[in-house]
Amino acid sequence: MLAEAIAAVLVGLTVVWLVVQPLLGSQRTRPEPAEPLDLEETPRGVALAALKEIDFDRETGKLSESDYQLLKAKYTASALEALRAEEATRPDPVEALIAAKTRALTSGGARCRTCGPRPEPDAVYCSTCGLRLLPSSAAQTATPANASAPAALAVPRMSDESVR
Q1: Which residues contact residue 111 at a Cβ distance below 8 angstroms, ignoring those fewer than 6 apart?
Q2: pTM for this entry
Q3: 22 inside domain
Q4: CA–CA dist 10, 94 (Å, integer)
Q5: pLDDT at 156 over 70
Q6: Distance CA 115, CA 127 (A)
């Protein structure tokens, strides 16, 4: 009976402590998660929404042609300015892909005698012409035999008569 009473008191004190602790403890503020801006909240979005609005107002007859031309010039200039500012801060994804491919091809990987550097780093044979690839140490000094000719023209093809 005494053990049950002690256990009940301990459970009660634990519950009271859990309820009172957040009230007495220091206030910790959690940083709010960073949310991306909606398109309408960006300068570009504001200008594009304004352009749509003045087009609608002109079509419904609420805006004269002279006012439309004035507002269109103003908001078009601000939209172009916002687009140029975005392009200056954002790298071009196509340029990034080209740079990555160039790094992959020139990073000392395998090289074919006829086709040049190969994108497959662990390949033994060229995926274009089927010749054995030069090892990476020899690939640095080797140059393709006919680099000016396309790979399809550089490979001799067997005719149907030679197969028979």
Answers
A1: 117, 118, 133, 134, 136, 138, 139, 140, 142, 144
A2: 0.36
A3: no
A4: 66
A5: no
A6: 10
